[in-house]
Design goal:
The complex is a heterodimer of chains A (741) and B (185).
Chain A (H helix, E strand, L loop, with lengths): L4 H12 L32 E7 L4 H4 L7 H6 L5 E3 L2 E2 L6 H9 L5 H4 L57 H8 L3 E5 L34 H5 L25 H4 L24 E3 L7 H5 L9 E5 L42 H18 L1 H4 L2 E7 L19 H7 L11 H8 L12 H7 L6 E3 L2 E3 L66 E7 L5 E4 L9 E3 L7 E9 L13 E7 L12 E6 L1 E3 L8 E3 L17 E4 L7 E3 L3 E2 H11 L73
Parallel strand pairs in A: 1-6, 1-7, 2-19, 3-20, 4-5, 4-6, 16-17
Antiparallel strand pairs in A: 2-18, 7-18, 8-9, 10-11, 10-15, 11-14, 12-13, 12-15, 13-14
Chain B lengths: L3 H14 L35 E4 L4 E3 L5 E4 L4 E10 L10 E11 L5 E2 L5 E5 L4 E3 L1 E2 L8 E2 L5 E10 L1 E7 L8 E7 L3
Parallel strand pairs in B: 1-3, 2-13
Antiparallel strand pairs in B: 3-4, 4-5, 5-11, 6-10, 7-8, 7-12, 9-11, 12-13
């Protein structure tokens, strides 16, 4: 039995405080599966204000189980609203999730790579697919998607990052429907020349994707001007454009680099990229706090909020301020202190996002706008695995924290043993590979897909035309798909990864593209270590991906390997270069039995990591290797929503994803009632693709928006039945290892 | 085999028997907001300081092992946490009854707080109350003084599944409880 302690405590706590937990969702009535759902179950106008806060790179199992001890997001906020346990990202690594959320457009590799080469155009209006294929708005229908001019599965740097003007976004729909909106980004504009483009685009104001695309590698001039990175944070400016959706659509920024010729014009005038629509989070007159103090009618109906790369949990150690300096000894924000107060530490991850949320969420909750039909939506772009560098503790750690968290986790995780590693070392036939071991199976869970179609949770999402999925005759995956081979390592492509291919081309996959294989296999390395004589525990900067590597060095017995690994944290680090976790491993022999050091140890050498089934002398198999499992999505991140229309302490097991989210917001604000019905290559602004207001893959046939399982306190007696919460998933769902908590 | 529904229904009933229980006192809410934005909305549970629950005779706190409670007594304040239950390594799979040991830590007090094993008990998921005794070969400290941290280990044989360990420092009035699970599968 895997019992959900969180659920138990939450339910018990609700009873304790006299609140009511949501009743279990009922099964759908006969015939319900044939309906196309276009309603959230809310009455028009019941929700008047939405604040979307997007965080970064954490799985449900990292965030909502105690693994990272982030009690505010893990416990406090779900107790105020609904926890969506089965909310999925739509891809990896980041930017594709943001663009999918606001447009329904699917991933392509430049966006999946966070536009790390240059901000060029992702095709033109002529690249918008204008015909249906297969079942209309079915999984294989790419109507309205932009086909990369470089073709499907083209290399990073060849696709482009900014969508053409006739690709409408949610914000264009708001314009046409007269819905006021604003995008806030923390640190936006802090460093001149770094994000001065329209909508927070990278570079200077003169940069634009069409005639003056910005290279994402800082130039000598950029460096001279104090810019060290466009894709990562820097000390005084932790904004990153890849986490702000607005600059990546010509429909928002226009084509003439003034913003005046965007696809739509805001109802109140101006442009989509002016100061009334794109603002620094902390701007004294246009920022979030300034807006929250206004009467409800003057607060934007929709607010997109992007915390910086520290406060969104992205960076494990922050490059700059994490707001820790504005909290008192009891952990309460001191609003009388300036936000620029020096931090007391630089710890990032879910520690930093908890600080940000503790500061800002109560302010939103106290605002007049929130009390008048407000909805706070805290979500993540994608679900990175609950392991090293993405989590302060590994889900497989044998520590008190990790063991306790394991009771709350959706998935069961298990570290590989030497027996598992031995299977990966067995020679395989040419172009074939062993089945993935436990660690790869742990990691690939972060690349799964899910949504709800016609009331049933399904384990897929449409891939779109650019990042597709396919296998060869041996069952090897050929392309990374939306999940981008996120955290596993594929065999090399025989054609693209030639540096890894052997003389007989037997250790590779013919026709594979964009494998990312170069990031996994590694040469031997010598690292600093610390261990006394006669111990099995060695302190060293290792990760779970080092499990199974042979260990040599002074004081290490012959035939020793890296056994279990622990990365425990968080440490409150005093500098932006501090290590937020303490790492150690157990020294074992080839059978997995603990062995002891013979003398004190000061360094160790770890063996090279090779291709399982095709190892060469001195190599040990890479534990995260997986040739066969597809990576179709962005994994389960979970999401929390708080509103007067949601009963505190609700838990929903319905599968939702970013496309469901988009459909939900479109329905809540009834964008189809807008005036934007001029014909686009595919659909219209207000009508979307399906003439019901749904853009891109939000228009999938039968896609369920958030329903009465979420908005269960609307008090209108209206709406559809909840989805089959907790019901067995559709045949083919590969989440066999899920707990039933 | 214990199921969620079997556990939760009686447990919730037990919880509801604790009157007046709930969230932190209003004084713990931020008294100053950035721009005087507004009051705490009545439809949300009251926030607690730093996620730490506050418990008192008038307003008992519900917590879980590893999450401390700041207990307000008539004479002062003390922070109490519970870890466990720890089970013997030879506990049989799916055992119905299991020897449980709880580790209780008290500290951060601003007054001398008398202490006894009898101040703690367990109510299991069926509503049965169990007394706790100091772990074999240990004795419970008689009090915790200001700036002192004391630990006591209390044991009992309990049904597997869920329950609550309760703290009632001055008699029968519970000031804090920790929801626990004794898993044997």
């Amino acid at each position: 039995m895997k019992f959900s302690a969180l659920a138990a405590v939450t339910a018990a706590g609700l009873a304790f405080t006299g609140l009511s937990a949501a009743a279990p969702a009922s099964a759908a009535p006969p015939g319900y599966g044939q309906q196309t759902i276009t309603s959230t179950g809310l009455l028009p106008g019941q929700i008047k204000h939405v604040w979307l806060i997007i965080l970064e790179n954490k799985s449900y199992d990292a965030t909502f189980t105690g693994l990272n001890q982030n009690s505010y997001l893990w416990k406090t906020l779900p107790s105020q609203g609904v926890l969506l346990k089965d909310y999925y990202g739509t891809g990896h690594y980041s930017q594709d999730n943001y663009t999918s959320m606001v447009s329904g457009q699917s991933p392509s590799l430049d966006l999946q790579s966070d536009c790390d080469v240059a901000n060029t155009n992702l095709g033109s209006n002529a690249n918008i697919i204008t015909t249906h294929a297969g079942k209309t708005f079915g999984a294989g229908d790419n109507y309205g998607q932009v086909l990369s001019p470089a073709g499907a599965n083209a290399k990073d740097g060849t696709n482009g990052c900014t969508f053409p003007k006739d690709v409408a976004t949610l914000f264009n729909q708001f314009d046409a429907a007269g819905v006021p909106w604003k995008g806030y980004a923390q640190d936006l504009g802090n460093q001149p020349g770094r994000e001065d483009g329209l909508g927070g685009a990278p570079g200077i104001a003169a940069n634009n994707p069409t005639t003056n695309p910005k290279s994402m590698t800082p130039s000598a001039t950029d460096k001279a001007n104090g810019i060290t990175s466009f894709t990562g944070a820097q000390a005084g400016d932790q904004y990153v454009a890849k986490h702000f959706p607005f600059p990546w659509f010509h429909s928002i920024i226009g084509d003439n680099n003034t913003g005046t010729d965007a696809l739509t014009t805001p109802a109140g005038g101006g442009t989509d990229t002016d100061a009334n629509h794109i603002a620094s989070l902390t701007d004294a007159s246009k920022g979030l706090i300034a807006d929250l103090g206004k009467p409800a009618a003057q607060v934007p109906a929709f607010s997109w909020i992007t915390p910086n790369n520290c406060s969104d949990a992205h960076d494990a150690t922050c490059k700059g301020n994490n707001l820790s300096g504005v909290f008192d000894a009891n952990g309460n924000p001191n609003y009388s202190l300036p936000l620029t107060t020096a931090p007391t530490n630089y710890t990032g991850g879910l520690y930093a996002s908890d600080l940000w949320l503790r500061y800002y969420i109560p302010l939103i909750e106290r605002s007049a706008a929130f009390k008048d039909g407000g909805l706070i939506d805290i979500t993540f772009d994608e679900a990175n695995p609950p392991f090293y560098s993405m989590s302060f503790n590994n889900a497989t750690d044998q520590t008190a924290v990790a063991n306790k968290a394991a009771k709350n986790e959706i998935y069961d995780y298990s570290a590989p043993t030497m027996k598992d590693q031995a299977k990966l070392a067995v020679q395989s036939p040419a172009n074939q590979f062993p089945k993935p071991g436990p660690l790869a199976k742990d990691y690939v869970k972060a690349d799964l897909a899910g949504q709800n179609i016609n009331g049933r949770n399904v384990s897929w999402e449409p891939t779109g035309p650019n990042s597709t999925l396919a296998v060869d005759a041996f069952g090897n995956q050929l392309f990374p798909g939306p999940g981008d081979n996120g955290y596993i390592t594929r065999p090399p492509s025989c054609e693209q990864d030639t540096a890894l291919v052997n003389a007989t081309a037997s250790n590779c996959v013919k026709g594979a593209k964009n494998t990312g294989a170069g990031f996994g296999f590694a040469p031997a390395k010598t690292i600093a270590a610390a261990a006394a004589s006669g111990t099995s525990t060695v302190q060293a900067a290792v990760t779970v991906t080092d499990i199974g590597r042979q260990v040599t060095g002074a004081g290490i017995p012959a035939g020793s390997y890296v056994g279990s690994v622990i990365n425990a944290g968080p440490n409150m680090v005093a500098t932006p270069s501090g290590a937020v976790t303490n790492a150690s491993f157990t020294l074992v022999d080839a059978k997995g039995k603990q062995v002891r050091t013979t003398t004190a140890v000061t360094s160790v050498t770890l063996s090279a990591l090779g291709i399982p089934g095709h190892l060469t002398a001195g190599q040990t198999p890479l534990a995260t290797f997986d040739a066969q499992d597809a990576t179709p999505g962005g994994g389960i991140s979970g999401s929390v929503l708080i509103s007067p229309l949601i009963k505190p302490g609700t838990v929903s097991n319905t599968s939702y994803n970013h496309y469901s989210w988009l459909r939900t917001i479109e329905d809540i604000f009834q964008v189809s009632k807008g005036t934007g019905y001029a014909t686009l290559p595919a659909g219209t602004v207000s009508g979307g693709l399906d003439n019901q207001g749904h853009l891109g893959f939000a228009a999938q046939a039968g896609l369920m928006p958030f329903g009465t399982d979420v908005f269960n306190n609307a008090g209108n007696g209206r709406g559809r039945p909840a989805a089959q919460s907790g019901s067995p998933n559709e045949q083919g769902d590969n989440r066999q290892s899920r707990g039933n908590g | 085999m214990i199921t969620t529904s079997k556990v939760l229904v009686p447990l919730c009933l037990c919880l509801l028997l604790i009157t007046g229980c709930g969230a932190a006192p209003a004084a713990d809410q931020p008294s100053v907001t950035a721009s005087g934005i507004g009051d705490w909305p009545s439809f949300l549970p009251s926030p607690t300081a730093n996620g730490v629950a506050h418990g008192s005779a008038d307003s008992p706190a519900l917590s879980y092992p590893g999450s401390p409670v700041i207990v307000q007594l008539a004479t002062g304040r003390v922070t109490v946490d519970v870890e466990g239950p720890a089970l013997p390594p030879d506990t049989k799979l799916n055992a119905d009854q299991v020897a449980c040991t709880f580790t209780i830590t008290l500290g951060d007090s601003d007054t001398a707080v008398p202490l006894a094993a009898s101040q703690f008990d367990v109510v299991d998921h069926t509503g049965v109350v169990h007394t706790l005794a100091p772990e074999a070969s240990t004795t419970a400290p008689a009090r915790v003084d200001p700036h002192q941290t004391v630990t006591l280990k209390l044991a009992a044989t309990l049904p597997s599944g869920e329950g609550m360990i309760r703290y009632h420092p001055t008699g029968g009035v519970v000031v804090a409880a920790w929801d626990y699970i004794a898993e044997t599968d």
